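Researcher: Structure prediction, please.
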Amino acid sequence: MDIIISNASEKPIYDQIYSQVKSAIMKGVLKEGDALPSIRALARDLKISVITTKRAFDDLERDGFIHSVQGKGSFVAPSNPQMLKEEILREIEAALSKAYELSRACGVSKAELAEMLRVVAEEV
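Model: Predicted structure follows.
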């Protein structure tokens, strides 16, 4: 699993790890039961604090993407179709919110924006 950390990013390092692992799980690159690197090994490989890596793993576990077994490590959690759907819906909502903000900044009406979405949906 390749995780790329950008010191120039506005996102905190733990959030960059969280996002990349979550994305790999959602895209099926990491599958149910796959072992993740240990917190210490990942911290060493990325040359970051163990505390930072632990925070990312804690957040992933809290959100149901991974589960940890004492003395054995962290693994991709069994997929929960409802949880995955909710996550995708949140991403869609964020993208639509950004599109709406851009449309307001450029003076595009709601009707024009809705028409643009309809056209995009027909093209797919």
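Model: The CA atoms of residues 109 and 116 lie 11 Å apart.
Researcher: Thanks, that helps.
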